[in-house]
Design brief:
7 strands, alpha/beta, globular, single chain
């Protein structure tokens, strides 16, 4: 019996978003080529119930102790966290970023284990906010997809810049979507 390899993709948006980005195409390619893919949507929190009920409607069905199939060999999960990591006073600090997934309920490590993604071949990160997911699962390779110059976005804040710089330094492979992003990455690591 042939077992599929496993990949967790930590993404910035929902898999079924009307706007398809590069990560969607990568997920589909991996799924067609022998991988089970877990698309990890951004976490939602009690704050989202107050500010963005539409977002809660999209993510809440993905918060389950079972696999939710999104497409062939692609599954979805959205953590529910008690403390948001957002561009708001108190919630945009490095401390908040480091404890954001630690307040997931139920625990993120337990949830990933229950749906069969506690031990994976590849951890693929696009969403810097959730970079510390790496503490909650076992992986053989860490890939960072540097898709945008995030400092230009209004909701980007200092803690995210620091966390991204660290991720660039420590990832096993880095994919960048533009030469300017390659140049940025060269500040932190030797490029092949």
């Amino acid at each position: 019996m042939h077992t599929l390899k496993k990949l967790v993709m930590v993404e910035n948006q929902e898999f079924h978003s009307p706007l398809k980005i590069g990560a969607h195409h990568y997920a589909e390619l991996f799924a067609r080529n022998g991988y089970e893919v877990l698309w990890l949507s951004p976490a939602y929190s009690p704050l989202h119930y107050l500010k963005d009920k539409d977002l809660v409607r999209k993510r809440r069905p993905l918060h389950a102790d079972r696999r939710i199939e999104l497409a062939d060999n692609i599954y979805g999960y959205a953590p529910f966290t008690l403390m948001p990591f957002a561009n708001l006073p108190l919630f945009r600090s490095r401390w908040a970023g480091e404890h954001y997934l630690a307040t997931a309920w139920p625990g993120i490590a337990r949830s990933l284990e229950r749906i069969g993604f506690g031990d994976v071949d590849i951890l693929w990160i696009s969403n810097v906010k959730a970079v510390l997911i790496k503490k909650y699962l076992r992986y053989k390779a860490l890939i960072y997809r540097l898709a945008d110059e995030k400092t230009g976005f209004k909701n980007y804040y200092r803690a995210l810049v620091e966390m991204e710089d660290e991720l660039i330094r420590e990832c096993d492979k880095l994919f960048a979507t533009a030469q300017a992003l390659v140049d940025k990455a060269k500040q932190f690591r030797e490029m092949m």
